[in-house]
Each structure stands twice: as C-alpha cells, then as structure tokens.
Amino acid sequence: MNEHYSLFKSLNYLIFCFCILFFCHNSYAETYKSWNFSYNTQSWTSGGNITPKPTPNHHNADGWPGIIYADCTGSDPYFISPSFSLSAKKYHKIVIKIVTAGGYRHEMRVYWKRSYDSSFVESRSMATSYYSSSGGSSMKTLTLDVGKNDNWSGTINKIRIDPSRSTCSGTIRYHIDYVSIEGTPTAPPKPSQTSPSSYQTFYKGDSINFKWNKNGYSGTTWLKIFHTSSTPIYDKKFSGSSFNWTAPTNKSGTFRWEIALNADGLWSKWSSRYFYVKDPPKPSLSSPSNGSSFDFDSRIKFQWNNNGVSGSNRLRILTAGSKKIIDEFSFVGGASSKSWNSGHTPKGNYLWQVAFQRNNAWSGWSERQFSIKEPPKPPSPSFEAPENISTFFCGDKINFRWNNNGYHGPIWLIIYDPHKGIEKDTKLSSGSTSYNWSSNLTETGTFRCELAIQVHNVWSKWSSRSFKLSKPVLEVSRTEMMVGDTLNLSCNIGKQSAGKNIGFFVDTQSADPVGHPLKTNNEGKATLPLTATKDWYNEVSLSCRDEQRKTTSNVQKVIVKKVEPVIQINPLSGPQDGNFTISGSGFSLNHSCSLKINGPKGKSSTIATQSNASGSISHKWTPSKDAHSGYYHCTAIDDRTGNQSKSLSWIVFFNTTPSADEPHGILARTIDQKEVYWVKYSKKWLITGSTDHSDEPFFGLGYKLSDVQWFAKGALSHLDKGKDILNNNDNFCYRSTNPNESAVFLIENNESHSFYDWPNFKAQKFEASDIFWASPEGVDYIQSKYPKVKAPMIRVSPLKLSFEE
C-alpha cells in the first residue's frame, strides 16, 4: 500500500478521490434489470381479482404514456414478473413508479423467489405504503431496499408486486409505469489469506506457497511482497488463488505479503500478513564438549547434528586468539562427523566451527573451543620391589627395583625420612633399574622412596613406594586370659638378625620384670609359651629386646582374670541316709578340685573330685552313719588356680517314716525367739538358734521371707523385715499372744480375720487347708466340734517350742 500512500500525497489524487466518492455516494447506481412497458407488457402477468390483463398503452385513456394498467375488483391483486437471474449480493433495491386512482393510502408488498424456491412466501417479501390523491393525478416512485432482508440472498429469478393489501371496493385502477432492480457498485471484500500463517518462519531459499480465499468472488488477484522498503520485491497480477515463491538467498528478516481482489472493475482493500526468512539453522555441536582438552598428537572426532535438515557442511579449525585457519573441510550431503589428527599442532587453545548450507544459503558458524596439551611426560617408573608398606628393621639393607616401561633416560631417586625430611637424594645413570640402600638408622616410622625418569628433557611424574622401619615386634596370642592359661609370645626382628639373642620380659604388678633369653630362628623370630600364675592376676606387661641392635619392642598388655567357682547342693535338706549332689562350674578344665565340708559339732572333711572339659564338677555325697543332723557347709577349691567358691549350707535330719495325714515342709519361727525351725513329717529341726542375732543363716540357706508360713505375731518385732510380711504377704496365719486364747487370725489381702469356731471360720469363706497352725486348745476345740475336719494343723505351744535332734 506504500505506492498508494505516495500517490495519496498529491493534490490531484485528493481531488480525484473526492469526486469519485461524491459521485458514487450521490448519483451512481447500476441497473441490472428494468421494465418500462413502452410498447408491450414485457411478459408481466397479473393475478387475483384484477381485470383485465395488464394492458400496455402508449398513451392510455387516463393520459399516462407507456404503462401497464389493470382494474382491481376484489381481494389480493398482484403483478408477476417474467423469470430472470441476478446476484442478490450485488443488486439489492427494487424501484417502482406507480399511480392509483382513489384518493387514499395503499400498502404495497413485493415478494421474490430465489432459484431454488418453489413459491412466494411472506418471509421473502418487503412492504411499503404510498398515498394516492383523489383522481390519481401524480405518479409515485417507490424504492424498496430489499437487501436488508436476510432472505434476499443467492440468485433472484422472479418478483411479484401486490399493489394493495386491502380488498378493492368497487373498481380501482393501478398504473405501473416503470419497474427496475438496481444496486450500488461496491468493491469486493478483501481476500482471506490462509497460508503461510502470520509470522511463519522460513529459511533462505525455501519455496513458500501463498494461498488465499476470494470469498466467493472471481476476478484478478494482485500479489505484492515487501522486504525493508516501500518498493515491493515482487509485484504480480494473476487469476489464481495460490502462488509459489522462492525466498531469496541473500535477504533475511521480516517480509510482508499483500493481496487484493478485482471484481466487476473494482479493487478490494489489501490483506496483509508478515513472515520471516532466516539463515539456515546452525548445526548443533555434539562433541567434543566446549573446553575439552586433548593430548599432543591425538585423534579428535568432531561431531555435529544438522537438526534434521538436509544440505552441505563446512568444518574449519582455527586458533582461538587470532582465529587463523589451520585446517578446513567441506562435505556434501549432510555429513555429521569428521576425525582429525592434531599431529604436531602446538599446545594452545583452538576453535572448531561448523556451518550448514541449504538452498545455496549458508547458516552462521556454530563454534566450540578445545585445547591441545603440551607433549606428554614419560610414564613414571613402575616399582617392583619392595612391596608397598613393607616392613624392615633398623639396620637392614633394602633393595629398590623398578621398571622404566620401555623408556630410556636418567633416573632421579629420593628417600624421605619422616623425622628429618630427605635422607637420600641421588641421580642414577640412564637405564638404571635398581638401587641398594642401607638403613643404618635408629629411627622408626614410615619412609618413602620416590623415582622419576627424564625423556626428551621432560621429567615424568614421581612414582612413590612407602616402607616401614621398625623395632622388634612382639605379638601375643591373646590379650585376655585366666590364671593358669598358657600364653604364646612371638617376637620378630627380621631375617637379617636370624640366630641373634633376644630377651622376653614379664613385668607384673607384684614383682620385678623376669627375663627369658632365647635365640631367633632363621626367619629372625622367636616364640615363648608362658603360663599365667597368681602373680599375673589383673594385668601383666610383656616386651622383648634385640640385644644386637639394643632396641626394645613394643609393650603388650594382657589382662589376667581369675574366676571364683560357683556351687550348688541338691537337695537343700534330706535324711541322714539320703544322697546330696554337689555340682558347680567355673573350674579349670579337666583338673583336680577339692570339696571342704564342715558339719555340726566341728566335724570337717576334704573330698577330692575332677572337673570336666567345660570346667564343671558333679559329686554325690552321702552323710556317714554317725553324722549329726543339723547345719552343713561346703566350699569348693580349684586345685590349679587356688580359687575357691563361696560356702553353701544344707540340713541333714533323722529319717522317719511319715504318715499319710501329717504335714511337711513348713518353716516356722517361735513367738519371742529368733529360732527358725524346719518342720517336716511332724519333726522339727532347729536351723538357727537364739544365739545368732541375725537373719543371715536363714537367708544363707536360700530361704526368703515369703517361705515363712507361720509364727507368732510377737516374733515380728524381732524380725528385720517383719513389716514386709504383714504388708505384702497374703494368707499369713498367726496366733494371739495369749496362750489360753483359742482365737486364730488369718491375714488376707492385708486384712486380719479371726475365728473361734468352725461356723465363724466358714462364714468368712475359709477352708481347713487355709489353717497352718493353732494352739492346742484351738485344735482340740475344732476337732471336737467338727471331727470330720482334717485340718493340717500343728499343735504348738505359743511360748515354748521343743525340738528333736
């Protein structure tokens, strides 16, 4: 549209446009079809109550020249045109010149049919009204803008004129002088651009297919393509609705294509769209990655991707600074890689660039940087001996050996001392592969030997091998043991001291160190077995000394334990002719042990026995025929270690044959004394007497307070833990301190219940088996009243309890 704009600036063009607009708006109308009825009816017909048929008359009796007229005598008069064909879009007005006698207002309606309509209908019609003066002295020109009706569309092929909608009263004559169908010429609408889409992007040299839609119009199309100026780079008129155009290979950026349509001699406005043309896509570089580094004289594979677009490529290699091209390659057919040998290209930074050509247009350069390293250093010598972290002893000679990996050049050897730094620094002749070094040092620690080789004036990296210089090394077979166990001591001072004197030293906490001299074997080692004695108990320090080098080994500490044996006796009480089993554990394995037994009246004996492989003993003991009943004690002794167990006690009593109804297994205490009795088969044995003012003998036998089944309440004040009995034990029976009172009390759930007779006892839901003891009077009373009651009661005196030996 830019050329229009330049023309628009001229005054002449302004005047021209003004005149055209004024003429079109005010006076110009194009008539498609008209009927003036000058000489005949021109194929118009009439219908309804109208007579006679339309009659042309050059100058009729009413004085109107060139008309058709008819008389209306009833309802629905109409005139129908002959068939025709016109575009409703272009012609949209109907003009009728008519006069009617009568002197009143008429309503006229015009109908039309399209090419595919079969009849006239109300929806395809338009009405107007006009007034006819009395006598019909003047013609009326009526204009109907039928284009405003949506059904005025497509192709119109017939019209019908109903001059009046009312019924004629009498005879009314209608004169039609002129009928025409007209339209105001308008430019066609802008063509609709369909492709390419707005702002679509193309590459240089691409074929672009421009397409548009004429929106139902036919005619000439005018296509213009603009780049950066108002002058089109392409300007052509043609009749089609598409056009193929090749994008230039020398231009890129924003383009605009405009299209206009000419129909019936009028041009539409311009449709406009933008599109882009750009360079072909740069290749995507794959490898090597940016900043990659390569060895001197290496083969580098450059790889890229043309992003699915076919074409040609160029690869070039440049210096990074001056961008001097040092190599360049061209490829046809979309290559994607190139292997390049850097040869003797100097160390430095370089660029590799790839460009892509498509449709004779080149993309920009894709670029990455890489570097080439300096000529490589020779490989470091490979150590062969000694093994890394090998251990030597002070004074040993060490042979270092290595492999130069096929390279030839001077060798540089350095030995580092952990205490003072460099111990040895020497350069060896070319081809050297070994070196002997004497470690005449007293320092110990981790030393290091390093090697490098020089090839073509470039030194290799350092190879490193660590080794240790050590004093005599003492090892022990265990760090924890028992008294009597054997411990193996092993000392190593190295092969170079084979057959030399070495001393082992044992330092206990209770005595001065004791030495054990030996000579080393061919390996420079010596081994000494030692047995832990009682003097070793708790902890012992062990060491060895190299007499030749006057160096002492590390110190090994060993924890020595002693275990007190544990014994048990089963049963804890038995008859004079019964068997008792004394068993225990924690003794030396498979070794002799002693059992010391102390009986009543100072009698004692020692019994020999043997432990098994697990350190346990088991011995059956039977009292002698003249053995006393009472309290016996036993202690077990490990003959090897001297360790002894704690003393264990049990009871031996006279054996009697029990009756079926007699109770047994009851512990009892007296009311006011601290004696404890064991009651079995109605026999009573004293366990601890009144002279012992302690409960320890009682507890020493393994009894607990809960084992006490009864005693008089008065004895509680003499019991250290009597309060616990009252507060914590259920079903604890006791007797009133009044010796003549037959009442029996039972403590259950910390509540005291008393009973005097059996009904009272039963009323409190007690059974006979709940009675542990009662006074003789109480027992007699219950059994006399209730002879069937078999209560396991014990007749005891509340103040005095006799016992039998």
Describe this structure in words.
With 805 residues, the protein is mostly beta strands. It folds into seven domains: 29-183, Jelly Rolls (Sandwich), CATH 2.60.120.260; 192-278, Immunoglobulins (Immunoglobulin-like), CATH 2.60.40; 284-372, Immunoglobulin-like, CATH 2.60.40; 382-470, Immunoglobulin-like (Sandwich); 473-561, Macroglobulin (MG2) domain (Immunoglobulin-like, Sandwich); 566-653, Immunoglobulin-like (Sandwich), CATH 2.60.40; 694-785, no CATH class. The protein is 6% helix and 47% strand. It is built from six helices and 63 strands. The strands form 14 sheets. Strands 1, 3, 4, 7, 10 and 12 form a six-stranded antiparallel beta sheet that branches. Strands 2, 5, 6, 8, 9 and 11 form a six-stranded antiparallel beta sheet that branches. Strands 14, 16, 17, 19, 20 and 21 form a six-stranded mixed beta sheet that branches. It is elongated, with a radius of gyration of 68 Å.
Short summary:
Helix content is 6%, strand content 47%. It has 805 residues and is mainly beta.
Radius of gyration: 68 Å
Q: Report helical residue fraction.
A: under 10%
Q: Which range does the strand content fall in?
A: over 45%
| N-to-C span | 145 Å
Annotate the secondary structure layout.
Elements: H1 2-8, H2 11-26, E1 30-35, E2 45-47, E3 50-59, E4 65-72, E5 78-80, E6 86-87, E7 93-100, E8 105-114, E9 125-131, E10 140-144, E11 155-162, E12 172-183, E13 192-195, E14 200-203, E15 207-213, E16 220-226, E17 234-238, E18 242-246, E19 253-263, E20 266-267, E21 271-278, E22 284-287, E23 292-294, E24 299-305, E25 312-319, E26 325-331, E27 337-341, E28 348-358, E29 361-362, E30 366-372, E31 382-385, E32 390-393, E33 397-403, E34 411-417, E35 421-428, E36 434-438, E37 445-455, E38 458-459, E39 463-470, E40 473-476, E41 480-482, E42 486-492, E43 501-508, E44 514-519, E45 525-531, E46 538-546, E47 551-552, E48 556-561, E49 566-570, E50 573-575, E51 580-585, E52 592-598, E53 604-610, E54 617-621, E55 630-638, E56 648-653, E57 666-669, E58 676-680, E59 683-688, H3 696-700, E60 708-711, H4 722-728, E61 732-735, E62 744-748, E63 751-755, H5 758-763, H6 776-785
Parallel strand pairs: 14-21, 23-30, 32-39, 41-48, 50-56, 57-60
Antiparallel strand pairs: 1-12, 2-5, 3-4, 4-12, 5-11, 6-11, 7-10, 7-12, 8-9, 8-11, 13-15, 15-18, 16-17, 16-19, 19-20, 19-21, 22-24, 24-27, 25-26, 25-28, 28-29, 28-30, 31-33, 33-36, 34-35, 34-37, 37-38, 37-39, 40-42, 42-45, 43-44, 43-46, 46-47, 46-48, 49-51, 51-54, 52-53, 52-55, 55-56, 57-58, ...
